[in-house]
Amino acid sequence: MEKRVTFRGWLLPLVLIAPQVVISLVFFFYPAGQAIWQSLFIPDPFGLSSQYVGLGNFEFLLNDKFYRAAFGTTAIFSILVTLCSMIPALFLAVIADRLIKGSGVYRTMLIWPYAVAPAVAGVLWLFMFNTRVGVISWYLGQLGYDWNHVLNGGEAMGLVVVASAWGRISYNFLFFFAALQAVPRSVIEAAAIDGARFWRRFWTIVLPLLSPTTFFLLVVNVVYSFFETFGVIHTITGGGPQQSTTILVYKVFSDGFVGQDLGSSSAQSVILLVVVGLLTIIQFKFIEKRVHY
Amino acid sequence: MAREVHGMVEKRGSGLWLTHVFMILGVMVIFFPIWLAFVASSVTQPEIVRPPMPLWPGDQLWENYSKALFSGVNVPVGTMLFNSLVMAIGIAVGKIIISLLSAFAIVYFRFPGRNFFFWMIFLTLMLPVEVRIVPTFEVVAGFGMLNSYGGLIFPLIASATATFLFRQFFLTIPDELAEAARVDGARPMRFFWDIVVPMSRTNVAALFVILFIYGWNQYLWPLLITTDPEMNTIVMGIKQMFPSGDDVADWPVIMATSILAMIPPVIVVVSMQRLFIRGLVDSEK
Question: Is A99's CB within 8 Å of B36's CB?
């Protein structure tokens, strides 16, 4: 779509667009170019010179068992976060949708966690499950379950998943609730007159109508768990124990800043770049469809 | 008839109560971590380190919060709150200004390189800061912007999302308005200030809510570029309050800080709920 009526001149628009273009060049394109460039080199241990290795860094990464493990961890982590945030959100939205009055109050309460930063959410959940002072870990201990996410990789994964999914429940709830409110009442009432009970109506009418929202949230939540959960992992586990919660973004950070392995970290950035690109394309393909829908 | 059907669809009577019970249970579960943090910020350290800690607030609120705000652990939390506020507002306002300007240029002008710039801005959608941290860090360090507000704000300011949002909106402004402005001999910037900006008010407000929270909740970027505790933001500063090694963390103060870290974004979200939901839906489209 284009405007029919436009203003003349070429200098003014260039001046207007300049701030955004300059910032994009300096802080987006140049660093991204640097990442691609550095990914082709291995710096010597003193950082004085570097040696061109072509795709050597990538080759090394793809054969590295730790990097492959991080891929697997990221896959498991993002699937779990997506499920743990979408299913409770859908459940709450369905209940809230059945209320004529009062859903506004619940909605206000349920929005809160969205405003809590992932890193702060990490601290809150760490506090509840802390091995020394945690309330939940203490009660689990009373029930005979010895909770220790510092040593047990599975428990560590469970904890970062729940802490990451928690704030997303609010987000998903808002979208599901809006979508449910948009389902035409007449369709549901017609089904009710025909004798369809609640769960039958839900499975055969409501859920199919929610599918565009569901798919949208699926993509958005996967993107979230890939890139925005760094704070949760850094505050709760620091990637441990034994790298069991090291997701790809965390590895870029720990190899690049903690390990100072710039070549490998840059190559990992480039791989992530490809992943983001693919996810963005999926998202846009879907949005095109939704416009036609 | 209509009422009976309604009865089948929306719950009444005992079913209604059950629905409320489910809802309240859900809210309680979701809310529990925040409640517990609040309780922890109102009791003494010994009450916490001898589990189980109480589940009802104590009387140490003032002590813990004033200790956090005015002395903190590495740096007073008041300082961190101020840094966060500058960063969040800087990012929100900066993004809105540059996006308004560039969207205006793209929609209302035909100039050489227009398509090229449009795609360039579009591509930045695909580059979250997490992906390009090492080189971006080097750029910022090269400019001498470590430990500065500029370093906190600028790298996060270019936003394709906001530009697209404004572009979509500008396209819906009736052509007659621009036509009339041109006939009256109004300069483009006059049209921008008198017509476009006032018409975009709601969009700007909705976007502000979303961007403020985005800026406030940043973690990795401030963690990298603020080595000086005086420049820490509150969200990244909490982690720095945990002692290294085996010392016991000062939980009441840490939890008071966590609560302080969530108050501003919660106030923004809850008080501007309608704008917030609108901004959320708009910025994801």
Answer: no
Contacts A120 to B, Cβ<8 Å: 217, 235, 238, 258, 261-262
Q: Residue B5's closest chain A neighbor by CA?
A: A189
Size of chain A, expressed as the number of residues it contains: 293
Summarize pLDDT for B54-112 with one digit per residue, the tens.
Answer: 889 988 889 899 988 898 888 899 999 999 999 999 999 999 999 999 999 999 999 88
CA distance A148 to chain B (A): 16
Looking at the predicted complex, does its ipTM rise above 0.90?
no
Q: How far apart are CA B65 and CA A274, in angstroms?
A: 45
In a mutagenesis test of the A interface, which of B22, B80, B109 is the best target, namely the one with the most A β-carbons within 10 Å?
B109
Give, as one character, the DSSP assignment of residue A257: I
- Interface contacts (A, B; CB < 8 Å): 307
Look-up of token digits 């401030």: B222
Q: What is the SS3 assignment for A290?
A: helix
- Give the other-Cβ count within 10 Å of A285's Cβ: 11
Domain with CATH 1.10.3720.10 in chain B: 77-284
B77-284: CATH, from 3.40.309.10, 3.30.470.30, 3.40.50.20, 1.10.3720.10: 1.10.3720.10
- Is residue B114 within 8 A of residue A13, CB to CB? The reply is yes
Read off the pTM: 0.89
Task: Give the phi and the psi of residue B122 in degrees, each rounded to 5.
Answer: -55, -40
Token readout for A26 is 């300096």
Contact B235, B77 (CB under 8 A): no
Read off the CATH number of the domain in which A266 is found: 1.10.3720.10
Task: Out of B51, B219, B273, name the one closest to residue A135 (CB).
Answer: B51
Whole-number pLDDT of residue B1: 40
pLDDT tens readout for residues A165-207: 999 999 999 889 888 888 888 888 888 888 888 888 888 888 8
Q: A26 to chain B: which residues are within 8 Å by CB?
A: 139, 154
- Give the number of other Cβ atoms within 10 Å of residue B112's Cβ: 10
Task: Reply yes or no on whether the pLDDT at A80 is more than 50.
Answer: yes
Please tell me if residue B75 touches chain A, with a CB cutoff of 8 Å: no
Split into its structural domains, chain A has a count of 1
Interface test mutation site (partner B, options A92, A106, A133, A187, max chain B beta carbons within 10 A): A133
CB contact, 8 Å: B186 with chain A? Answer: no
Per-residue pLDDT of B108-135, as tens digits, reads 999 888 889 988 888 887 677 767 788 8
Q: Which domain holds residue A170?
A: 65-292
| Most distant CA pair in chain A, distance | 78
Of B33, B107, B123, the CB nearest to A125: B33
Number of H helices, E strands in chain A: 14, 2
3-state secondary structure of A52: strand
